[in-house]
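Morning F.,

Quick status update on the modeling queue. The single chain you submitted on Monday has been processed. Sequence for confirmation:
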Amino acid sequence: MAPSIGVRESHRSRLPDACKPDVKLKAVFTLSPALCRVFYYTTYAMTLKQRLLVVTAVMICMAVLYFVNSHDPSSQKRQTDIGNLTFPIQAHIPGQARFFAGSEPNPFVTVTERLANPLERSPDLRVNFEQNKNSKNPTERNIALRAWTACFPHFTAPQGQAVTLDSVTKGLSLQAPNYSERVDAYRSLLGRCKNFLDLPHDDIVSQSQQLENFRNTGEAQSPGELARQYLNAGKMNEAKAVARSIITSKDAYAINSLSEFIADMTASAASVHADPELRSMAFSIAACQLGLECGSDSLTALLLCANNGACTGSVVDRYLSELPSQPDRDAVLRESRRVTDAIRENDMSALGL
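Structure tokens below.
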């Protein structure tokens, strides 16, 4: 006989009679001799006291395992870090869509104070960029993106050439409205961007491409862009849930980031007789009223002057100056007051949310 058969016979001869293949249960227990031994000895070979001890020991082990697993972070629902806050990950939309808007605490409460106003006032935009560029938080990475795009491509020189104010402003017409003010705005921006200018040309190009990819994938996304992303995907309930979370936060930067979402939602609602752009601007003005840095020296004010020629007064004044008529300006101011009041009162119905 082959040795393997002899081994099997020897093993089987040590089994209790109930486990041998000549009994009715052989179809089950010959497949698992160890299981058969446990069954046999706990059923027939133990006293009642011994059985009770075994049952007690098994129950204690199960209780210990339950306690350990219930306190094991790896057994909890997967979480993603948002600064000091966490939300359950959702996979159906990338980037910031992993943030569940109904969770607590609200993730948008401190964005203006921590990130947005320091950026608006910053004399060195590279500092803001470096602080946030590697964050896994899309809102923080969006701040890095804003710091970067305030400087590039404005201050990108051809390979081997230096950036100067003249090279940046040479495309401006001397007859353009507010020409001298726009040159001054570019000068101020150049001062805020100067610490980027030692980067090699190829590094500027590659970093710009990476940030554009982050923007496209939602990895460098403002809170309002998440709501807009849901809206464009046809997920109105999710879009409104994010928007309501932003409103509840009372965070001025997050509210300002809703402006494009509000424009798109207004345009898609046939029953709403309102100008989408006016409603969008009303939210941005409300954000200024709620604490977003909107002074004449803010980054947004400088960009409005340099890019659009709106160079007088605060950010609100510059927004209004871009409207074609006084009735439009009056309408936006009325709407912004209504929006501000509704935000302060958490009146979602008045906001269309």
